[in-house]
């Protein structure tokens, strides 16, 4: 950052300025880490293992919300930008140094944390689960991947001449079969339109066993992922390993978008962004499938 030169008068002003006169919140970063998880081998000929969207959750080992599940995250250290906080927490929890990481929302409700006035910058992170070494933090009992299914239903819609209100319910179902854990959370979204301007509010109807306001954060993180996949598309590649089949890539898009895609159309659209390798993916009962990788020139264009 360019050095700022203060005048003599400004230096005198700062000498007498007392920042402690104002209440200040603690700053945290919460990270919604998504990955594509392989659930089981498919019995269908030539198909890859079944894939599902997964999210990383941390079981809290201390109060508040002891034994509840939460997103990775933590408090910013002195002199640390919040993005650096998020990268540090991501590295500590997954051993991943480089990943898609973008802010998508700031959470500052006064009662969001029983410990006090704590605000959070939330980040969306996309990783290759096969490269993650999931570990537990200092305040966590365990860290684990959960598959996530999101059921969306429109509850109410009122449209008038210059205003509208749309209520949508998101039911989030998290499951880790090996731990025998299943969490169901319900979040309602209210979108109000007045004179063509939109405001959006969220209410956690049932947090299940998710700590703090993390049911809302995950809902909004998924919406951000969905919108980016629909608009730009290339974000999905950050969920893939270095080399992948076109079938698994298409399935990842379908998981995030929540709809089936026509294979010829999908492959035509994605063709500029992939390069065919000389390697094949084989397996019991499968005809070997070609492996592809990113066409970096198209991504950096």
Outline:
21% of the residues lie in helices and 42% in strands. The protein is α+β, with helices and mostly antiparallel strands and 301 residues long. Mean pLDDT is 89; it is low at 136-140.
Describe what this molecule looks like in 3D.
The protein is an alpha+beta fold. Helix content is 21%, strand content 42%. The protein has helices at 8-16, 82-94, 214-231, 246-257, 263-270, 296-299, and strands at 26-40, 50-60, 69-70, 73-75, 100-107, 118-126, 140-159, 163-176, 181-194, 197-206, 274-283, 286-294. The strands form two sheets. Strands 1, 2, 3, 4, 5, 6, 7, 8, 9 and 10 form a ten-stranded mixed sheet that branches. Strand 2 (50-60) and strand 3 (69-70) form a beta hairpin.
Low-pLDDT stretches: 136-140
Strand composition percent: 35-45%
Counting DSSP E segments of at least 2 residues, the number of strands comes to 12
Counting DSSP H or I runs of 4 or more residues, the number of helices is 6
Element order, helices and strands?
HEEEEHEEEEEEHHHEEH
**Residue share in helix:** 10-25%
What integer value in Å does the Rg equal?
A: 22 Å
Structural class: alpha+beta
Instruction: Give a short account of the largest sheet.
Output: 10 strands, mixed
General form = globular
Average predicted local confidence, pLDDT: 89
Distance between the termini: 27 Å
